[in-house]
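name: query_chain
kind: protein
chains: 1
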Amino acid sequence: MSYGPNRVELMRRAAIYIDKILKGAKPADLPVEQPTKFELVINLKTAKALGLTIPPSLLLRADQVISDMGAVAA
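structure:
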């Protein structure tokens, strides 16, 4: 199970920063940003191998569930 920033969103924000710098903005003048979009991914295959049971209420909140049948978006 992991909970963290959405990597696609991080790369999109990095591209915007790079664009501003290439257009002449000074990096020191750009504001520091923190991620705003986070995602919860649960790997049921690994949980099963470890003998763990994931509550259904947590599975419903997950953005992505990885099972024996592959990844399933929630």
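note: Helices lie at 7-22, 44-49, 56-61.
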